[in-house]
């Protein structure tokens, strides 16, 4: 469990080069002033007094990080949170430093990954989501910008970050009509402001599709709502049936019938990837139990409605265009839900 301090981050760390930024935050590489050898870390600075970045948003992110620290960590797919500094003008979250960039940067450089590489990414994301869901947390904004590489890109050791829009499962469906997340990764139910845990599995499906083909599965919101996609011959001719079968199960429109993270980890293709790539099974955490939440000093409790119109503000929300993908890939959404399209004939 990390500690929350009311002192200044500058008393403990020297902030260095900027390594990422978002609408309301900046991420710096930093060096410790208090630890032997000057340990290097990442410091995410969230500014309090920026329009749209209200106190509830900041406190919810801290609350979600606390839940992860209490019920999940240590876990290899999450960046370890070390401490949080509560200052009058900003909140600074000190985290494990990941030096390999983002998954988006990697795919931009390589255009697409091999089956084994894409599989290694998918296994780790499924493990991360299994752990989150067992702890009662829905991430709501899984995308390649929010997946960091812990070391050299070729190692493909991943860390899922950015809990700015994450919520507890019991709070995930607020019914207020506010859609959060990123359009291209949004499941049909998420487009209606409904966020069951299954919405994270859809986003993993979008990620896997991009990794294997270099393109988006859905060309429009209507296609997303209907789960309408195709394996175009040119991009998919060399891809075996295993990942295609998993994608079909991840893109089931009815979220109550969509494959879960636990089930996906038992999929034959995922098991094959584990064996070939030598990825050990990770211990699943025990199901979440109601626990007293630790509030930051001097701050009011969170309201029961966790929704926000703030865009996702990830550890590495960089302005990067992904090859032939549309520029809209990085666009955040804050729209009222549309009426569901009628079922296809």
From TrEMBL:
Keywords: ATP-binding, Kinase, Nucleotide-binding, Serine/threonine-protein kinase, Transferase. One of its GO terms (molecular function) is protein serine/threonine kinase activity. Residues 13-270 form the Protein kinase domain. Residues 287-321 are annotated as: Disordered. It holds the Pfam family Pkinase. SMART domains: S_TKc. Belongs to the protein kinase superfamily. This is Protein kinase domain-containing protein. It comes from Pyramimonas obovata.
């Amino acid at each position: 469990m990390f500690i929350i301090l009311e002192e200044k981050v500058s008393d403990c760390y020297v902030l260095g080069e900027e390594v990422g930024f978002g609408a309301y935050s900046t991420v710096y590489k930093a060096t410790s002033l208090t630890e032997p050898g000057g340990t290097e870390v990442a410091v995410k600075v969230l500014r309090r007094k920026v329009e749209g970045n209200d106190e509830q948003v900041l406190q919810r992110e801290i609350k979600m990080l606390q839940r992860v620290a209490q019920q999940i960590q240590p876990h290899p797919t999450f960046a370890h949170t070390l401490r949080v500094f509560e200052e009058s003008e900003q909140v600074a979250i000190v985290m494990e430093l990941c030096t390999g960039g983002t998954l988006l940067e990697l795919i931009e450089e390589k255009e697409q990954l091999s089956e084994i590489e894409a599989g290694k990414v998918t296994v780790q994301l499924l493990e991360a989501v299994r752990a989150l869901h067992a702890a009662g947390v829905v991430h709501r904004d899984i995308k390649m910008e929010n997946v960091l590489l812990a070391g050299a890109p070729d190692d493909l050791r991943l860390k899922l970050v950015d809990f700015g829009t994450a919520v507890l499962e019991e709070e995930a469906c607020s019914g207020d009509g506010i859609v959060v997340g990123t359009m291209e990764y949004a499941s049909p139910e998420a487009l209606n402001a409904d966020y069951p845990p299954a919405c994270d599995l859809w986003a993993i499906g979008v990620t896997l599709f991009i990794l294997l083909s270099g393109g988006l599965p859905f060309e429009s919101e209507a296609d997303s709502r209907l789960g309408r996609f195709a394996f175009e011959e040119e991009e998919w001719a060399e891809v075996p049936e295993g990942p295609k079968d998993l994608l079909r199960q991840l893109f089931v429109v009815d979220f109550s019938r969509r494959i879960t993270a636990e089930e996906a980890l038992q999929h034959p293709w995922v098991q094959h990837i584990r064996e070939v790539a030598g990825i050990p099974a990770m211990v699943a955490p025990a199901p979440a139990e109601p626990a007293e939440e630790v509030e930051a000093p001097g701050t009011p409790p969170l309201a029961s409605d966790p929704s926000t119109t703030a865009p996702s503000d990830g550890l590495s929300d960089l302005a990067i265009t992904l090859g032939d993908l549309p520029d809209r890939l990085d666009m955040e959404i804050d729209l009222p839900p549309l009426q569901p399209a009628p079922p296809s004939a």
